[in-house]
Amino acid sequence: MFLRELGEYDRALEIYKGLVTRNPDNSNFYDAVIRLHNMTKTDLDDVLQFYDEYAEAHPKADVPRRVPLLIATGTEAVEISAQNFRNPQSCRTSIKTLNRREKNV
The pTM is what? Predict the structure, then answer.
């Protein structure tokens, strides 16, 4: 985030997107890209779209499929769950994530 503080927003965004490409299972990199886009959880549609784009670009990565389960609600959560449950490995991870989420509520 040092580059952002220097006003080099585009360069910082480029670096973090490169890091996501290099390690698509690191949730910290996704969070940084969202912060650099000035997204907040109130922009839920934008955040979900961002994760959807990266899930398509990195089909073996769990993070862009799992994190939306934690932030989506209502019909969006049902749709995301249905997509995740088509993949058995992702399904197992998603169920673990949802169980942890319910225990923390």
Answer: 0.66
